[in-house]
Design brief:
Blueprint (H helix, E strand, L loop, with lengths): L11 H10 L9 E4 L4 E3 L13 E4 L2 H6 L3 E2 L20 H10 L2 H4 L2 H7 L4 H12 L3 H19 L4 H7 L5 H12 L18 E6 L6 H9 L7 E3 L3 E6 L6 E7 L6 E7 L6 H11 L6 H8 L6 H6 L11 H10 L5 H15 L1 E2 L10 E2 L3 H4 L11 H16 L10 H9 L6 H11 L11 H8 L7 H8 L6 H13 L16
Parallel strand pairs: 2-4
Antiparallel strand pairs: 1-2, 1-3, 5-9, 6-7, 7-8, 8-9, 10-11
Helix pairs in contact: 7-9, 14-15, 14-17, 14-19, 18-19, 20-22
Length: 504
């Protein structure tokens, strides 16, 4: 495959410079394959650089494996952050990739996937090969095999459980697929497991620097729900369901300043492990490309100094869409602290009690839509209007009028949500930003946002801010985070009058 087939916005010269300098900013944006060894690597691989004439560049691990290369055992391509450039926007490939991550191909066929993105299977395959260098099935299989390789390398899980955790229903098929991709049998990676046997796994989750983990923890700590989450200065912990077999996770910085987070995970159901890790990566925005984001936003005079001050600011996602939606409604017309208090009361009154808490302080699950669809929340201080709105959201989720599928276009998501009583544009965009991690969500009506964007003490109108933010597409949600954060970095001003909607 020639350099012209990189299928990426990166040109061969840029890839070559990044490879020779081992530039971590390009980790996961392309892969380096060496014809003399038959191996493909990350651009940060510590091995001696190969001769240029033996090097080929690929936009994805799946493309390299489709071309016959096997993953490097030294730099471990499974640790590379994802490349969200392919998932940006609402085009067919972006939507299909999001559906693959959501598990559509775990049980369904290529025809099922193509049907959901409104194209034929042959056209979808052609689009994938043209843009990613590999058909959808290969992308799906490579994703599963790389996750299996990480589990085999870093944990002591039995091979049978590794097969289940990586989405294979048959151990025989897993062994065959793994041997074909890696040229070795799965058990050959188990000779020296890095962690002792036990219920808690430790996995390394890579990211592209810079990454402001402290800012993410600060954002989540101010909104954490006692009983469900525990957030301190160094880590985020959470319990997740089902209640009769709960799991838990804890995320902290990887030691020695490596470009990775340390995930401690207890997941009783192996088949849910890959979806859980995928959700964590989305929640902590580990696959973002800060170079691309800064390149688009730094042209604006208000954002330029903010990007210089906090170049690694990321988009804080939420674990559960319904939880985020309820909290967004609670946050209308009240402060973040007040919204957290109301949400905590809902958890204590209606949350699901975990009979055997997996860790101290993690003993409840957020109530389900079925529970809140008929709950009277006025008794815990929620206004009548907001109580009705929350019940309306729960019922709309149950009957399918709204959902949290992240492959849907932003405009379609917002339109469906604002059709619900009590949901305005601000709330819908905030939910899209937190629950879908949509990079272009933009709650323009937010008062603090309109003040921060003015940068002269005045307050922009929603229309003026919307017009200004057109230049920030497709990264408007990151601009929101920078503007919100800028207000936290200055001394507090006198408390303003109550306004229509604020951050939840």
């Amino acid at each position: 495959m020639s350099d012209a087939q990189i299928h990426s916005s990166l040109d061969p010269q840029t890839c070559e410079q990044a490879r020779l300098s081992r530039d971590a900013r390009f980790d996961g944006l392309f892969f380096v394959a060496v014809t003399s060894t038959g191996i493909y690597c990350r651009p940060v691989c510590p091995a001696r650089a190969s001769k240029r004439e033996n090097v080929r560049y690929y936009a994805s691990a799946a493309a390299a494996e489709t071309a016959g290369f096997r993953p490097c055992l030294r730099c471990r391509p499974e640790l590379a952050p994802g490349n969200l450039v392919w998932q940006r926007g609402d085009h067919v490939v972006a939507r299909a990739l999001k559906l693959i991550e959501a598990g559509v191909l775990d049980e369904g066929s290529l025809d099922d996937l193509a049907r959901q993105v409104d194209v034929g299977s042959r056209q979808l395959r052609r689009l994938f090969v043209d843009r990613l260098g590999a058909p959808p099935i290969n992308v799906h299989t490579t994703r599963r095999l790389l996750f299996a390789k990480q589990l085999l390398t870093e944990t002591s899980m039995p091979v049978t459980e590794v097969a289940m955790a990586s989405g294979f229903r048959s151990l025989r098929r897993f062994n065959a697929a793994f041997a074909q991709a890696n040229r070795i049998a799965p058990r050959e990676l188990r000779r020296h497991p890095r962690t002792p046997p036990g219920d808690t796994l430790v996995l390394r989750l890579g990211y592209r620097p810079p990454y402001d983990f402290d800012a993410l923890l600060t954002f989540l700590r101010g909104r954490s729900l006692p009983g469900i989450e525990h957030v301190d200065e160094h880590s985020y912990a959470r319990v997740f369901g089902p209640a009769d077999a709960p799991g838990w996770l804890r995320l902290s910085a990887w030691p020695n300043a490596e470009h990775a987070l340390k995930l401690e995970l207890h997941c009783p159901q192996p088949a849910q492990m890959l979806p859980v890790v995928t959700r964590i990566r989305r929640m902590f925005d580990l696959d973002a490309d800060p170079q691309a984001i800064a390149g688009s936003l730094c042209t604006h005079p208000v954002l330029r100094p903010l990007l210089r001050k906090r170049p690694g600011l990321r988009l804080p996602g939420g674990w559960d869409g319904f939880e985020i939606a309820v909290r967004a409604v609670l946050g209308q017309q009240v402060s973040v602290a007040a919204a957290r208090t109301l949400a905590s009361r809902i958890v204590q009154r209606h949350g699901i009690v975990v009979p055997n808490p997996p860790r101290p302080g993690l003993e409840r699950l957020f109530p389900s839509p079925e529970t809140l669809a008929d709950a009277d929340l006025r008794e815990i201080g929620v206004t009548t209007a907001r109580s009705e709105t929350i019940r309306g959201i729960a019922r709309a989720l149950l009957d399918g009028r709204v959902d949290f599928r992240n492959d849907q276009p932003l405009d379609a998501f917002v339109a469906r949500w604002v059709a619900l009583p009590g949901i305005g544009e601000w709330t819908a965009h905030y939910v899209a930003m937190r629950a879908l991690s949509h990079p272009d969500a933009f709650p323009a009506a937010d008062l603090i946002l309109r003040r921060a964007a003015a940068d002269d003490g005045s307050t922009l109108s929603t229309k003026a801010l919307d017009h200004m933010a057109e230049a920030w597409r497709p990264w408007r949600a990151y601009a929101v985070m920078h503007l919100w954060r800028s207000t936290a970095d200055v001394p507090p001003a006198p408390r303003p009058k109550r306004h229509k909607e604020v951050r939840a």
